């Protein structure tokens, strides 16, 4: 019996935009959303009546910035006390608070009540939207997905993204690195030409993250040699620089600070973002916002030179990280065959210029679709994992690396590295430890990730204890600590005391700072509840729309001149009054219940039906006459 293969989808869950793709009929299809767009804003907006995700949420942002959430990819897997989180909060119109475990939560007003959501929950809402977009296109339920993350995402950011997938009801088959996905999108059709190895450098500068990877491509083999980046560097930072610049200008000119006004800040930010985009094609642009603050219109100009100046250090950082990636890969810049530009911000002229000067302008490949490449690659990987691809797909072999070094704090807090950064994953490394004192009964292991020598300057992933050690001189008991990194780049650490059954396990999920199983289960239930509420709301909206369409249609019919010969004027007036009564009622009732809308429609139809019948029969006569 032929088994029906249900396709897995590829989702690029971006800071600003997300994109979904599927392998179908031997090619990758980028799926358009309900507005016909190939990417969807990663925005979620809450109102008195409903929840919007994607385009509609983005459109609602100007009206209600404090209840419209975006950019949560900059929060996911981070602590509230992170300096970068604090900086973002200062410029976001919505508010973010800390829970008892220093985890950030966004605060919104939904249906008149204050609600708090973890970044994972907001991301899950975006993922659900992307799932839904795919389902509408495919016509059936989707379960499996490959979700991409910046290559430079650390263990907690990867875990949190996977949790977001679980909350969204997805089976995340793989967490895939974004630059690797882009390299795959680029190299996939060239597999046959690549009998000789090629060094492909992926430069992905998006809305919130910067990510580079050096990928060696040979035939269908895509082997990542090194990766570098900054999970907090992208288009939003450039917007912030422009925003701050104009906030200061406004202060200087008008002696007023707009910082506390969420709506003004949002409108100015949008204007700054538009200005930034146009500076990719022009050298000077205007920034204009009518009635920005206290009735004052704002108008100014921004030149490309000024924009470059404002972001100079950030652009330089991109080149520094590029250099670091080459150094780590032990590849000279002259050995690079091609540079693939990915991410919306890679369109910035200065960025391309700096990169061109450093690597050679001719090597910059600008043809790939900057906004879709990541989802494209994810769809190929999804096809391979679900066994629905063709021979070319099946021949693809991907090998990623771990972005950060992993190790344990030893004597006086020094980090002993067990898995150096850029080690190919999946991997298993075993390191042997012992006691520091004579007759020490237990050893505490603190596992860190990062590049600093001082363990405490790195990121603490978790702890575990091996106890029950029999009395022995220091250095005699042997404890094997096993680091296992899976294909998603997610780490598991366990320790075993040699010659005994004593084991310990780093159970990161039990750490207070991450979501616990019960919390995730609760969130899944809530996500389902919100989905059901959205669906119920949609029914109301649809019922109201039917009444609205009918009333509007009748308001036009009633004014047709040919009607005069069919009904008396008083009869016409009577129907017209009822139609306008319905229209006024609709204006006052934004979300009536389905039953009320239906019954209003029924009554209106009963009144208008004789008229419609008369009109139809007249039209038929007209046809015969013709
Ligand atoms: P992400 O994957 O992080 O969501 P994208 O790759 O979709 O990000 O890029 C979005 C970012 O690119 C936004 O900050 C947007 O302002 C910026 N961007 C888009 N087009 C241009 C352009 N023509 N010039 C400069 N920046 C751009
Ligand atoms: Mg991206």
Automatic annotation (TrEMBL):
The record, for InterPro entries, names: ATPase_NBD, Heat_shock_70_CS, HSP70_C_sf, HSP70_peptide-bd_sf, Hsp_70_fam
A GO term, aspect molecular function: ATP-dependent protein folding chaperone
Please indicate which superkingdom the organism of origin belongs to: Eukaryota
Tell whether Nucleotide-binding is among the UniProt keywords.
yes
Work out whether the entry's keyword set contains Calcium: no
SUPFAM superfamilies xrefs:
Actin-like ATPase domain, Heat shock protein 70kD (HSP70), C-terminal subdomain, Heat shock protein 70kD (HSP70), peptide-binding domain
- Enumerate the transmembrane spans: none
Supply the alphabetized keyword list. ATP-binding, Nucleotide-binding
What family name appears in the similarity comment?
Belongs to the heat shock protein 70 family.
- NCBIfam families, from UniProt? PRK00290.1
Protein name in UniProt? Heat shock protein 70
Which source organism? Answer: Rhynchospora tenuis
């Amino acid at each position: 019996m032929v088994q029906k293969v249900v396709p897995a989808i590829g989702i690029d869950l971006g800071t600003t935009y997300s994109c979904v793709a599927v392998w179908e009929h031997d090619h990758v299809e980028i799926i358009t959303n309900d507005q016909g767009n190939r990417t969807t804003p990663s925005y979620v907006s809450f109102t008195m009546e409903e929840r919007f995700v994607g385009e509609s949420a983005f459109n609602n942002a100007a009206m209600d910035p404090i209840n419209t959430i975006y950019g949560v990819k900059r929060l996911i897997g981070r602590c509230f006390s992170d300096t970068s989180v604090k900086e973002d909060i200062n410029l976001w119109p919505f508010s973010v608070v800390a829970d008892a475990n220093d985890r950030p939560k966004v605060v919104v007003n939904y249906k008149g009540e204050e609600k708090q959501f973890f970044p994972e929950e907001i991301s899950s809402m975006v993922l659900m939207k992307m799932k839904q977009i795919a389902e509408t296109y495919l016509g059936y339920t989707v379960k499996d997905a490959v979700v991409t993350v910046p290559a430079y995402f650390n263990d907690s950011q990867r875990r949190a993204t996977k949790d977001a997938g679980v909350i969204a009801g997805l089976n995340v088959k793989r967490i895939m690195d974004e630059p690797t996905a882009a390299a795959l999108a680029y190299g996939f059709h060239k597999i046959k030409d690549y009998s000789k190895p090629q060094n492909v450098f992926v430069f992905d500068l998006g809305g919130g993250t910067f990510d580079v990877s050096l990928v060696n491509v040979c035939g269908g083999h895509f082997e990542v040699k090194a990766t570098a980046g900054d999970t907090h560097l992208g288009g939003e930072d450039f917007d912030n620089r422009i925003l701050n610049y104009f906030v200061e200008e406004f202060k200087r000119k008008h002696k007023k600070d707009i910082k506390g006004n969420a709506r003004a800040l949002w409108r100015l930010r949008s204007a700054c973002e538009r200005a930034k985009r146009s500076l990719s094609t022009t050298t000077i642009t205007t920034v204009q916002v009518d009635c920005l603050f206290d009735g004052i219109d704002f108008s100014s100009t921004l030149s490309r030179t000024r924009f470059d100046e404002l972001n100079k250090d950030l652009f330089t950082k991109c080149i520094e990280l590029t250099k670091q990636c080459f150094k780590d890969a032990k590849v000279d810049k002259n050995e690079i065959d091609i540079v693939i530009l990915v991410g919306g911000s890679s369109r910035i002229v200065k960025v391309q210029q700096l990169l061109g000067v450093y690597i050679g302008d001719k090597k910059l490949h600008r043809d790939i679709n900057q906004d879709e490449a990541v989802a494209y690659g994810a769809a190929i990987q999804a096809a391979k994992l679900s066994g629905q691809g063709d021979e070319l797909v099946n021949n693809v072999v991907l090998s990623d690396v771990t972005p950060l070094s992993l190790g344990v704090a030893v004597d006086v807090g020094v980090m002993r590295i067990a898995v150096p950064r850029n080690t190919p994953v999946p991997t298993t490394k075993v390191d042997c430890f012992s006691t520091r004192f004579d007759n020490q009964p237990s050893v505490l292991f603190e596992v860190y990730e990062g590049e600093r020598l001082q363990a405490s300057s790195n990121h603490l992933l978790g702890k575990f204890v091996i106890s029950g050690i029999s009395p022995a001189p220091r250095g005699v008991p042997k404890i094997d600590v096993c680091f296992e990194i899976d294909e998603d780049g997610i780490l598991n650490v366990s320790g075993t005391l040699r010659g005994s059954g004593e084991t310990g396990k780093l159970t990161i999920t039990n750490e207070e700072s991450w979501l616990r199983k019960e919390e995730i289960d609760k969130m899944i239930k809530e996500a389902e509840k919100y989905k059901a509420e959205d669906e119920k709301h949609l029914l109301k909206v649809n019922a109201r729309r039917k009444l609205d369409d009918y009333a509007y249609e009748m308001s036009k019919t009633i004014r047709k001149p040919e009607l005069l010969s069919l009904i008396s004027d008083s009869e016409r007036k009577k129907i017209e009054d009822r139609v306008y009564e319905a229209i006024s009622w609709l204006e006052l009732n934004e979300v009536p219940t389905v039953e009320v809308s239906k019954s209003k429609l029924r009554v209106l139809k009963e009144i208008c039906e004789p008229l419609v019948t008369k009109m139809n029969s007249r039209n038929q006569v007209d046809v015969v006459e013709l």
